Amino acid sequence: MHTSTTGRDARPIRRLHTAVLAAALAGLLLTSCSAPEDDAGSASPSASASGAAPSTAAPLREAREGWKMFTDPGRLVSFELPEAWVVQPLEPAVGSYAPGSLHYAVRTPEGVTTAELHTGILTPERPCPEAERTTYHVIGSDPLDLTGGAPAVTGIEPRFVVRLITGFRFFGSYGITDQVGGADGLACSLPNTVQGTEALGRFSFGDLEVLVPKVPAETGPSTVSFGTIGEAEAYYATPEFATVREMILSVRVGAGPAT
């Protein structure tokens, strides 16, 4: 199986220190250097991106056995994560997000980032000239129940997806989306974002906000790519990734503080 590395563009990664997990997760999980690392042992929700004290918001719901619940201070979003993992704040890129938006990384005890949560995304839709469209492939797709209620009867139901887009290799990512990739199985980019409540805006929860194919000069240690679709399917079929998948599928949107 091809060994890949994962991460957000232009950010360094760290590998797991445990050899067994390193073999299974090499490249699966991204690590951001922008978040503080002094909270790695904390089991409570992290501070906001502005450096506020750790959240004391009551959980919106109970977690399953062996997991715990993260709820942001404003009670706008919650998700389950394994008890040993932690949530830490991230510093957002200037101009890319609405004021007061939420930015968190979920990390293992070894410091590996399994997913990032960003709200208030302002990035405009990318143009897609006909000549730049390329094939994409859906490796996995699961319904996403964001509210805990009945699914919407109109529009595209939000989903957790694992997808590949074709360049000189197959480039992969995972996250949540409420948008189809493109007509006839062709696209220029694959957004991993969902429209949330007015307070949340467009938000993401996964490894990348948008997946695009790259040319060789744009790739590096933070790029996830595969030689074949079969390699990608095996890569995303590990028990370790199943845990990441369950975490992202657990995300729910709240109504905010009680009035």
Q: Which descriptors apply to this entry?
A:
259 residues; mainly beta; 5-stranded antiparallel beta sheet; 15 strands; disordered N terminus
Describe the protein's architecture and organization.
It contains three helices and 15 strands. 10% of the residues lie in helices and 27% in strands. The chain has a domain at 130-253.
Work out the strand percent. Answer: 25-35%
Separation of the first and last Cα atoms:
53 Å
Overall pLDDT: 79
Rg:
18 Å
Helicity level: under 10%
The structure class reads mainly beta
Placed side by side, the strands forming the largest sheet appear as 3-4-5-12-11
Please tell me what the overall shape is: globular
Number of strands: 15
User: Segments where pLDDT lies below 50 for 5+ residues?
Assistant: 1-56, 150-154
Q: What is the compact description of this entry?
A:
This protein is mainly β. The chain is 10% helix and 27% strand.
Fold topology:
Elements: H1 19-25, E1 67-71, E2 77-82, E3 86-89, E4 103-107, E5 113-118, E6 134-143, E7 159-166, E8 170-177, E9 186-187, E10 190-191, E11 194-195, E12 202-206, E13 210-211, E14 225-226, H2 229-235, H3 239-249, E15 252-253
Antiparallel strand pairs: 1-2, 2-15, 3-4, 4-5, 5-12, 6-7, 6-9, 7-8, 8-14, 10-13, 11-12
